[in-house]
Write a structure and sequence with these properties.
By secondary structure, the protein is α/β, with parallel strands linked by helices. Helix content is about 45%, strand content about 10%. It contains 8 helices and 5 strands, in the order αβααβαβααββαα. The protein has a 5-stranded mixed β-sheet with strand order 2-1-3-5-4, sandwiched between helices. Helix 1 runs antiparallel to helix 4 and helix 7 runs antiparallel to helix 8. The longest helix has 28 residues. The radius of gyration is 17 Å and the shape is globular. Bound molecules: uracil (URA). Uracil binds next to loops.
Length: about 210
């Protein structure tokens, strides 16, 4: 084959190779027992979404809660309902091009994100870093201060929300965590929800 056609062939298969690599990572993650976090949860919570096409968007939350721990998928509880509503409004979820994931893969005891940062750092070096590398998403959405800190190395979601930043060469949008939005709505603040939907609609260009 000419140089040209082999380049084309490589281009065609490299997307599929990425997906195979990501599937392998998620399969290994499922049986991870590398730290004490696994002892306090029912199962490792891997990802949600379809790995049948190159994903455009990787969404990163904090850690699984009780609902996620039971079902094995991220964002299936109240936070997930709000997140999926916001994504549906931008048409993003209709395209099967989104992977939803978390910084930590095991539900922390009492739903409290571990104070010892080394726990999340260790988990990230084992999993989320590799996921990001394998998936090579076009965009990332970071939900709240936890992924903002661990993935982007930044602090203060209220300052950087709705501002595109570059993380590992990927255009990344930090926004509120849905649990914050739910808390504010329960306190009667509907504006926060409105604003968070505006942030998410920044992603419309992907849909
Ligand atoms: N559910 C998740 O999977 N992650 C969060 O950060 C919150 C709820």
């Amino acid at each position: 084959p000419s140089q040209r056609s082999s380049d084309l062939t490589f281009g065609l298969y490299s997307g599929a190779m990425k997906i195979v690599e990501a599937q392998k990572i998620y399969a290994e993650m499922k049986s991870c027992n590398a730290c004490i976090m696994r002892q306090g949860c029912t199962q490792v919570v891997t990802y949600d979404g379809m790995l049948d096409d190159t994903p455009l968007l990787l969404i990163v939350g904090e850690a699984p809660g009780a609902d996620e721990d039971r079902e094995g998928r991220p964002f299936v509880g109240d936070c997930g309902i709000l997140l999926r509503q916001a994504l549906r409004a931008t048409q993003i979820l209709k395209k099967n091009n989104t992977i939803i994931s978390n910084t930590l893969k095991c539900r922390p005891p009492n739903n409290k994100f571990p104070q010892d940062k080394n726990i999340a750092r260790f988990c990230m070096s084992k999993w989320l870093d590799k996921e990001i590398e394998a998936i090579e998403p076009k965009r990332m959405l970071l939900l709240g201060n936890i992924p903002l800190g661990f993935v982007a190395g930044l602090a203060g979601i209220t300052k950087v929300k709705n501002t595109w930043i570059t993380v590992k060469g990927i255009r990344t949008l930090p926004t509120y965590h849905p649990s914050y939005v739910i808390r504010r709505m329960n306190e009667g603040d509907m504006e926060t929800r409105q604003r968070s939907e505006e942030h998410t609609s920044e992603l419309q260009s992907l849909a």
